[in-house]
Amino acid sequence: MKHIVLLLLTLLLIACSPAQPPRSEGEPFALRYAELLQMEETDSFCRVEVKNPWQQDRLLATYVLVPAGQKLPQGLPEGTLVRTPLRRTALLSSVHAALWLDLGCGAAVAALADTAYVVSPRVKQLCATGAVPLGSSLSPNLEVLKARRCDAVLVSPFENAGHGALDRLDIPLIECADYLETSPLGRAEWMRFYGRLLGCAARADSLFDVVEENYEAARKQVAKDGGRRPKVFCDLLTQSVWYQPGGASTMGRLLTDAGADFLWADRPESGSLALNLEAVYARAREADLWLVKYGAPRSLTYEEMAADCPAYREFRAFREERVFACNTLHVPFYEEVPFHPDLLLRSLSALFHPATAQQAASPFYTPLRHASRD
């Protein structure tokens, strides 16, 4: 009887003891490449910090992700509360729509901006079957947001700029600074944050592991094969400015990883370099390959290039017909590459080193043609 009484007293004391509050500080999440993102997870919420890309000692935004079916825990840290999983998102970029589809969350795209510029067939199908046009990403239709009862809007941050009328809505704005990362895998790793927003963290982590594995395998294969690296430069003169990727930019690093001797790899900039014709000619006149990315209803030709700028004829890559082009109005470059840089890496490494290409890769850049051969 004494033992029973002691047991009952013990249980009574436990029942009357105050419940332990959930941890207010979580374990840092092991991100391997993303520099603008920091996450920590606790038993009951996930805290996410987005660094200010222009002042990295400051934060652009802080989010506290709490499952929708869970009572709000005590001691939540400061930040924008986001109930997960998000069910009805408004996306200002088709880049994220493609990722939502990869994660099996296409049904969570309630509205999408700039639908007239969608290239990917699968994103077009998404627009046809569920995602309502949101108008321009620069001035989204607020009535659509309200009518679709969106639970979050994914926006792109710009330096010294807010989001206009969106800032006044009672809807969480998710700052998608992924496009400002300086490495291909750094940007792709943001899918792990988006997976937590959508309630599919394990799926997002698994997908990123595959992207990372494929990217590293292709990069190491290029390094192992060795051989001469072709000298490469990019794009076209726009009025009086010729933009080249900085050596520390996502594209600059990707070109180097794919086995190119990118001619501005020595530059430390993580964005684009604004150069003039003379500066590009001085470095690139004897380059082996010329990569041109453009968007036009019709395919670019050698004749059109020469008509736009006769000086193009002075570049060896032009004379020897080693110009490769990507028409972004026909090829889903912007929708498929950001979260799958491994696909572009394989495609470019096959272009730069065709003799050692291990697998057929879908080309993003194809040989430029002559008008007379169309």
Structure description:
The protein has helices at 2-16, 94-102, 121-129, 142-147, 184-188, 191-197, 201-225, 250-257, 277-284, 302-308, 316-319, 333-336, 341-352, and strands at residues 27-28, 37-41, 46-52, 55-67, 80-84, 89-91, 109-112, 132-133, 135-136, 139-140, 152-155, 173-175, 231-234, 237-238, 241-245, 261-262, 272-275, 289-294, 323-327, 366-367. 32% of the residues lie in helices and 22% in strands. It is built from 13 helices and 20 strands. The longest helix is centred in the middle third of the chain and has 25 residues, at 201-225. The strands form five sheets. The chain has a five-stranded mixed beta sheet with strand order 1-2-3-4-5, with helices on one face. The protein has 374 residues and is α/β, with parallel strands linked by helices. The protein folds into two domains: 27-210, 3-Layer(aba) Sandwich (Rossmann fold); 224-373, 3-Layer(aba) Sandwich (Rossmann fold). Strand 2 and strand 3 (46-52) form a beta hairpin. Helix 6 (191-197) packs antiparallel against helix 7 (201-225).
